[in-house]
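Dear Dr. L.,

I hope this message finds you well. Following up on our conversation about the binding site, I have prepared a predicted three-dimensional model of the protein together with adenosine-5'-triphosphate. For your records, I am including the exact sequence and ligand specification that went into the calculation, followed by the structure tokens. Please feel free to forward this to your student if that is useful.
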Amino acid sequence: MKLELRGITKRFGALTANDHIDLVVTPGEIHCLLGENGAGKSTLMNVLYGLYRADEGEILLDDEVQRFSGPGDAMRAGIGMVHQHLMLVPVFTVAENVMLGHESTKAGGRLDLEAARARVREISGRFGFDVDPDARVEDLPVGVQQRVEIIKALSRNAGVLVFDEPTAVLTPQETDELMGIMRQLRDGGTAIVFITHKLREVREVADRITVIRLGKVVGEAEPTATNAELASLMVGRAVELTVDKAPAEPGADALVLDDVRVFDANGTAVVDGVSLTVRAGEILAIAGVQGNGQTELTEALFGLQARVSGSIVLDGRELTGRTPRQVLDAGAGFVPEDRQHDGLVPEFTIAENLMLDRADGEPFVKFGSLRLKQLAAFAEERLKRFDIRAQGIGTRVGRLSGGNQQKVVLARELSRDLRLFVAAQPTRGLDVGAIEFVYQQIVATRDAGVPVIVVSTELDEVAALADRIAVMYRGRVVGVVPADTPRDVLGLMMAGEAPQAVAA
Ligand SMILES: Nc1ncnc2c1ncn2[C@@H]1O[C@H](COP(=O)(O)OP(=O)(O)OP(=O)(O)O)[C@@H](O)[C@H]1O
Ligand SMILES: [Mg+2]
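The resulting structure of the complex is given below.
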């Protein structure tokens, strides 16, 4: 199906998120949309999907003007969408979510649920996704929920398919599978819009590339363009794609983990005897395929896991058994993996989110009342420094673009005097310019003498930041290796091979 957007304009109050955008996606084409955080990509797709009504402009499918008054209309017209922020019903099962919105719901729904189950199994088989049709969505990790969104979008045989940053929470193998499926669908005549910040993916699958900046189309790029060319088109300036970092000068042992175990509700050890030491002034990267205990380990550090054994000592003080509040008060900063759930309160403003962990003391609260001037000045400074794109500090965080939400978390966590900094997937969803900035901030934190843990599934990120690398597999650390360890060795370790075995 051919998709054409003509002169789409969408305003939110004084902000013009889409400014007369024209876009044509022909059948049999993968069209990448590139642009900075807050450029207006998701807004444009939400207009297409009937979630927002455009202030101006038209949507055409096969040259016919469409009028969508909601996503139901868009779906019926043949548009499928994988949203950047998950839109599933948490209390429903995977199969029920996939079934939702399908036209042919029969009385009782029983037969259709059977069909939906089969569909889930069939599509997850094709992708190598391991998704149980009967699992409740709220019990699934965010990465698996994303797979459910993909299954849902694929289950409708849409003529136009939109993928809004689907790969942010996928493993490299799953990403490759998804790109394979996208090519297959394209060859079958589907028009595909693909949004990603990962330039490698763009160059790999794009047939055409449109770049959006500040709500306007600023140009088209060829898939043969270099990373540097794409980056500068997006951001409007040259971007440093490598991190400038001096060798670490580590000090004393600061964080010492000894035989840490984390058990899930069934009593299974998801972190299984981890012992690690991080020194002041060094970055320890924890690499590994998603779901090998990294998330639970970082959560255990911050008192967010209920069943933890072993010891976690920071600067000589035991952290196990403490509440998240006490760990933060001990000087730890944390960028959680699932920022929407654990890092932010979407209904609160940017300013309120920036002071979340300090709502009960100086400098913002004195004698029980909020010192608004101080808070405003602080929030304004953070907004500027982290280049958070928003109307102002009073904007609700839920209204920010995905990447800008991530910047709010980083801006808050890096605004205190830290004795420990732990960042899980710190640049997930960020544009190349913002990644450059965040890397500089993490390295500066290290250079200030703070012990830093970066958990990342991206080997590029591990290579850019690490002073040492610990690789996790099935809840255990398979080895701690130097930062210059070759990628193929890391890859084998991520599949569970001990480093000695790999080297031999
Ligand atoms: N519902 C809303 N109300 C107010 N402003 C909004 C709303 N949705 C989006 N915006 C604003 O519109 C602008 C574009 O946001 P959008 O989410 O489209 O960006 P994006 O290009 O998808 O960015 P990212 O790469 O970070 O996902 C941002 O400034 C955002 O704050
Ligand atoms: Mg977006």
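In brief: The mean pLDDT is 90.

With kind regards,
A. P.
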